[in-house]
Amino acid sequence: MTDLLTRIRFLIAAVAIGWLLAFAATALAQQAGATFDPQADAVNQGTLLREFPRIQGNINQLDPKARVLIQPAGRAWDYFHQVVLRWIGAVAILGTLLTLAVAYYGLGRLRISAGRSGRKILRFKAFERTAHWLTAVSFVVLGITGLNITFGKALLLPLIGPEAFSAFSQYAKYTHNFVSFAFLLGLGLLIAIFIKDNVPDKTDIIWFKQGGGFIKSKHAPARRFNAGEKLVFWASVGAGLAVAASGLLLLFPFYVTNIFGMQIAQVVHAVIAMPFIALILGHVYIGTLGMEGAFEAMWSGHVDYNWAKEHHDLWLEQQLAKNGGGPR
Amino acid sequence: MARMKFLCDADRCIECNACVTACKNEHHVPWGINRRRVVTINDGRPGERSVSMACMHCTDAPCASVCPVNCIFSTDEGVVLHSKDLCIGCGYCFYACPFGAPQYPKVGNFGSRGKMDKCTYCAGGGGPEVPGSIEEYEKYGANRLLRGELPLCAEMCSTKSLLAGDGQIIAQIYKERIIKRGYGSGAWGWITAYREDITV
Questions:
Q1: Are the beta carbons of A71 and B98 separated by less than 8 Å?
Q2: For position A206, which CATH number holds?
């Protein structure tokens, strides 16, 4: 009797356990199928890259840069630096030089129409000239050392060999990094000094309509700065500030931005710098070779009366009125 | 001639960081420089994977392309080496590298990064030093490849997750693994580095 009871109890228990096990297994299988298979459903490179252009994760290192596992944008940045930027630079700079050569041999040097009067008037004070030349010298140094990074290995490296070129480039890099502050100071001074004379006004519209002084028969009126000079001023301010901001990001790498931000900073820096150099080449041309009587304004500070009358008539009248005498 | 590549089978990586340690010990690289690192994706969530990453020794290496002094080059075996004598520490290789491989001994403000350092595939350096010499060892680390040995990180890997060797052979090993176990999270970095993928 007890034997039978034991057997029945055993049977019931076995069925119960078996049923429970089967139920549990089904439940587990359902759970796995419905939600997640820890092996086959792992993160996948292709999916991650489709979701976001960088794959990032956690790392047992303090360096946040090291968290980026893969950033295919590096190859795009390489293409920009080696192909796109070189084209931008070559077209902007060689194109400008070619245009200036055409202007020089076509138009020739713009002479003072009435000839020199022999009398001088102060155009730029010593402090203004100092600010200009501080900016100018640092710009040339920054331009050459900067272009070396883009074009040096193609143009200079074959001429002087790898050791000399590396030594030069190393110094050029440090020079670029430190002279940048001189440029910043100069740019700040130029903005502070000249901004009031560069505010666009109605005279500028007339100046453009009259052909900017390039048409001999028409007179183009101007105050201290004509519309062309104002354009150069504002373009330089805009480009200068953009180059300064992106340059500071490059100078303190990864302080405020990640790898993508660093690439963008370099792109902005270079894409702005190339046409900036082209613009300043034009500025240098018109201030030296291109126009008689222009260079002395920034060199000695004084210009000839007839030059002033021809190019900045309204400014000359104003200056003479301020000094007590009318136009003589 | 073999085309040397790395392949990290992330489904096997247990994030033990032995590859990182082996590399540091083999080459005696200074503090702060990690030629190899292990990044964990989706850390702590289901399906997390860890990937051991160093220089992948890319085809058409972008670092070599952007280097303004041409100090980085590929050897006949596809190993990307560089000359610390010529490096000016501009940091461009780091911007171009898809894998964050280039390392610099200093912080880097005002361009003072020092000479770039990176994984050499345990193949010495790209400078004028005699291969296998003590001068080369001090500047770039061991030259195992010269002795017929593969990179120590892969050789030490306890789960054989990290594979080093001829590209075709390690790709074949990975393919067989995918077929046998039925899944694979991908040959991490291969499309970007070698412009090819391993699929079955």
A1: yes
A2: 1.20.950.20
Task: Give residue B40's pLDDT.
Answer: 96
How many domains are there within chain B? 1
Q: Is B176 among the domain residues?
A: yes
pLDDT at A35: 58
Distance CA A5, CA B168 (A): 69
Taking contacts as CB-CB distances below 8 angstroms, the residues of chain A near B181 are: 39
Interface A–B counts its CB contacts (< 8 A) at 165
How far is B161 from chain A, CA to nearest CA, in Å? 15
Please indicate, yes or no, if residue B82 is contained in any of the structural domains.
yes
pLDDT of residue A21: 67
> Is A46 among the domain residues?
no
- Centre a 10 Å sphere on the Cβ of residue A177 and count the other Cβ atoms it contains: 18
Q: What is the pLDDT of residue A20?
A: 66
Instruction: Count the residues in chain B.
Output: 200
- Write down the pLDDT at residue A324: 63
User: Within a domain: residue B121?
Assistant: yes
**Which is it for strands B37-41 and A55-56: parallel, antiparallel or unpaired?**
unpaired
The token duo for A266 is: 């370099």
Q: Note the ipTM here.
A: 0.95
Of all residues in chain B, the percent with pLDDT exceeding 70 is: 100
Handedness of CA A259, A264, A269, A273 (dihedral sign): positive
pTM assigned to the model: 0.88
* Pairwise CB contact (< 8 Å): A75 & B49: no
Report which residue type is found at A268.
V
Does residue B129 sit within a domain? yes
Spell out, as residue ranges, where chain A has pLDDT lower than 50.
Answer: 326-328
